[in-house]
Structure formats: structure tokens, C-alpha cells
Amino acid sequence: MPESLTSHRPLLAILLKTTAIGLFTMLSAIIKATADHVPAGEAVFFRSFFAIPVILVWLAFRGELSQGLRVTTPWGHVWRGVLGTTAMGLTFTGLGLLPLPEVTAIGYGTPIFTVLLAALLLGERIRLIRITAVTIGLLGVLIMLWPRLGSSAGLSDMAAIGALCILLATLARALVQIHIRQLVRTEHTAAIVFYFSATASLLSLLTLPFGWVVPDWKVMLMLVGAGLVGGLAQILVTASYRFAPASMLAPFDYSSMLFAIVIGYVWFAELPTAIMLAGAALVVSANALVVWRERRLGLDRTKARAATDPKS
User: Fold this and answer.
1) Domain region containing 268
2) How many domains, the chain?
3) Is the pTM of this model over 0.70?
4) Closest residue by Cα to residue 249 from 3, 21, 58
């Protein structure tokens, strides 16, 4: 399906985006449910490898298979794979140690860290509004992390280790965002999506000597399902940007908290704490301020956002 067929269909875009966010949240829940049975590196392999067939079918359907397999800067894809796989592995580790809503909330810090790292690494200018947004966002992240990493918490606490993993994953995803901003200048979105899954599959095999197991058939089905769900979610989120601008769709990222609260309660009997919700509210407010500012400036990040998995 050629790029010229893009059109402005906001209701369809919102439906695609929210469905993708729901699927990504379900993916996280599946990984969390299997965390006691398989190590994070093995989960990364299943999540990445079994997404590849879905992505290939999608590319063939759109007539972009040749574009999806063509690269201009191979090392750019390698670094995207290294950063994204690191973020995914850390996230999967944290999912086994923290409630699903808490992992989701801390992950909202990615856009804030992206703004900060863009200034440090790319020399992007940060004016008063963005400085304010970054300050509010970082305060929200600190509030969410304080019960886990504060003075009364020790790093020997598994929940504290989980919080640290999610924080590092959030930083890694911010680096992915920065890297993709450069990568889309020379690479097709389809190539970025495909080669990330391929690279992550290969990199995850490096963890094979560190405790991989042969899961029973139920866990195996869940892991394969995670890959298929992840591939489908990536397709839907990419498709959503064909029908509406990224700035309009950005607020719907936060529907993941509603999905996480419902799934966390039904599947894992988890409920968010008041402190976590307060911190998440600050981070969401800061992200909304960034989105508003970017919309005012007319910054089109569509290609970069379409190539970025919200859950890595």
C-alpha cells in the first residue's frame, strides 16, 4: 500500500492507536505472567522472533517488502537494535518484579528523558516551556520511584531492583527515540521496524547460556502469543500515523494506564497506589505540555514515532 494513500481519518487513527496500546499492555501482562518460568532474555527472543512473520506479511501486503529489507546505514540498525533490545530486556526484568500499573507509569518518563537527551546529545534548544515540562516530569518520576529507591528502601529489595530496571529501560527508550530521529533521515520506516525485530532476536540469543529453559506448552503458547501480539500492535500503531498526525494521537498513549489498571487487577490482583498515581499525573501533565509545544512549533515526528515500539 503506497504512502500516497495516507489520508486524514481521525476516528480510524484513534481506534488503531488505542487498540495497539491495549495490545502492548496485554503483551506486558503476558511477559509478567511468564516471568517466573523463563528468564528475560528468553522472553525477548520470543517477543522479537515471532513478530517477524507478522511484520513480513504486513510489508508484503503493503507492497513494501523490498523497502523493508533494504538498508542504507547497517550500523544504524545495529545500534537501534542494541538500544531497543537493552530496553526490552530491562523492561521484561522489571515486569517480573513490579506491579503492571507501576511499570506502565514509570515508562511515561520516556518523552521527558527524550527532550533532555535531545538537548544534551543533539544540541536541540530547550526553552522555558520545555524546561518546565522536564522539571515537572522528573519530579513525577522521582515521586513514583521514591517508595522503591528512597532512604528506607534498599537495593537488595527485589522491588527496588525492578524499579531501577524500569528507570534504566526508560532512559534506553529515550536514547532509541533520539537515534531513530537520525535513522529516519536515510532509512524507510518499514526497514526500521523489521530489522529491529531481527536484530533483537539475534542479540537475545547471547543470553542462551544464562539460564534458558524449555517451558511447558502453556508457557510456550503464551510466549509465542507475545511475539504475535507485539508484531500486530506494531503494525496497528504504525498504521495509525497514516490517518492522523502524531501530535493528535500522542495523548492516547496514556490509555495504557487504564488498560494496565484493569488487566493488573483482573489478572494479578494489583492496584495502583496513591503515590504512584500522583507521580504519574505529573508525568502525564509534563508530556502533554511537550506535545502542546511541539504542535505549536509544527514539529512532525510521525516517522520516528511510527518506527518506535512504545514498549520496546
Assistant:
1) 3-306
2) 1
3) yes
4) 21
